[in-house]
Design goal:
Layout (H helix, E strand, L loop, with lengths): L1 E4 L3 H10 L5 E7 L2 E7 L5 E8 L5 E3 L4 E6 H8 L7 E7 L2 E7 L3 E7 L17 E6 H12 L4 E7 L2 E7 L4 E7 L4 E4 L2 E6 H7 L8 E6 L5 E6 L4 E6 L8
Antiparallel strand pairs: 1-5, 1-7, 2-3, 2-6, 3-4, 4-18, 7-8, 8-9, 10-14, 10-16, 11-12, 11-15, 12-13, 16-17, 17-18
Amino acid sequence: MLLKLENPKILSEVINIISDLVLEVRLKVDREGLNIMAIDPANVAMILFRLPSSAFSELEVDTPEVLGVSLDSLKAVLRRVKSGSILTITKQENELKLQIQDKIKREFNLALIEIEGEEKDIPNLSFTAKVEMTSLDFAEAIEDCTVVADSCSFISAPDKFQIKAKGSLNSFSSEFSSDELNLEAEESTSKYSLEYLQKMVKATKLTDKIKINFGNDYPLRLDFNTPIVELSFILAPRVETED
């Protein structure tokens, strides 16, 4: 197995984002590229990441590999990548070798780990609200919500999309008309944890546009896609129960 990235900064940024949600992952490597599917320890969020073969200047995989890695360790190594660095990843027995080539050649060896638990399937979801908007506007609305509450509601209608938050004393509301975004929606409302959303919106640095999909008291899917990166999050709704 050999993977070579001429621009490893993008991998470094994605791993840094994912590491806020999960501690360890299975890296799946085959001739199509590199994939991660992981679920956070609380079983609330799912992360889907794909770096296709076209992102690599070299990709040699005889048979598909599944590599268990600590994200803290991987993130620490990828932080050493600079602009203009070339990253080469190979596997040797029970180690992952990461070679960074710039002015000098540096080599890190990370122990591969066993990850407990069975891998779950990606859920087949059918959404009643589909929104595409600028990443910056979405990130700003989420940050505004955190000022007043620890959860927020996504509300859609055929002609508008709203993000609202209400705390014990204060509230916040933002409204986007169909002129400001691409909207295909029925009337839908669902509430989500801002703790998770704050971590997910860090991916807005990857792309100018975000796709938002949800329904009534239904999981949320956020897609941050670029020509060379596919990063998605699925977040369970927060359902309020009365005593």
